[in-house]
Amino acid sequence: MVVLPECYGQANLEQYDNKILHFGFTVSANSGRLRVDRNTDLFPNDTLKNINVVNFPGIGLGAVTNLKLGEHWDLRLLFPVISFVQRNMEYEFENVKRTTEIESAYCDLSLLVKFKSDRRKNTRVYVIGGFRGSYDLGSTVDQERSNNKPVVSLTPYTYGYEMGIGLDMYFEFFKFSPEFKFCSTLNNALYKDGFIYTNLLNGLSPQLFMISLHFEG
User: Are 204 and 184 in contact (CB under 8 A)?
Assistant: First the structure.
């Protein structure tokens, strides 16, 4: 006969959701993308064949502040969050390929509304969405450039929305929440510098797919 420990199956942190304010931290992995709006007046031309965007994985780290609004509603602030993102743009001309690296170190602020299901012992499912503002600490708008030196820059300030789904898991001393989220920029983030690489574009819209792990006490 197997004797189970007394704590088996018990509910953890039973008074956790009665507290108004919680703090924690978040770590995340991301995949950065760029939605490209091509200049149809110039693309394609006699020599340019295609523009491709190559995505790379990135990471992020930040702080979490959670305010209880009601039994099923929270207001969540993610700030500051530092996210490292890279996307390359490949310009395929008739006889040569040019690649420009777009590396960003974002300082993000997200103000989100969280809707939670009823708690089932030690878990809750939730959906989340709201506003996101970002400042690119690694912006290259001041970098030297020419027609032979491909540089494509994003404006330092961007804003947009994010939405996602996650799972609150209550452990003995903390709450752990894995979360999947999509983030999209609403403003045109392309910095127009007058050179061919940006003249071929009307706009760029950064996007992120994120997997976040939140830890709250």
Answer: no
Question: 18: closest CA among 170, 164, 151?
Answer: 170
What are the tens digits of pLDDT across the range 40-88? 776 555 677 888 999 999 999 999 999 999 999 999 999 999 999 999 9
Structure tokens at 58: 């990135």
Strand partners, 61: 27, 82
Dihedral class, residue 140 (left if φ above 0, else alpha if ψ from -120 to 50, else beta)? alpha
Reported as type and span, the H/E element at residue 64 is strand 57-68
| CATH architecture entry for 21-216 | Beta Barrel (2.40)
When the pLDDT of each residue in the chain is averaged and rounded to a whole number, the result is 92
Six token digits for residue 141: 């708008």
Q: Is the pLDDT of residue 6 over 50?
A: no
Cα separation of 52 and 59, whole Å?
A: 23
Burial class (CB in 10 A: 0-12, 13-18, 19+), 165: middle
For the chain, which residues make up each domain, given as ranges? 21-216
> Up-side HSE of residue 3: CA atoms within 13 Å toward CB?
2
User: Which amino acid is it at 209?
Assistant: F
Can you give the pLDDT at residue 46?
Answer: 60
The b-or-e profile of 170-199 (16+ CB within 10 A means b, else e) is beeebbebebebebebeebbbbebebbbbe
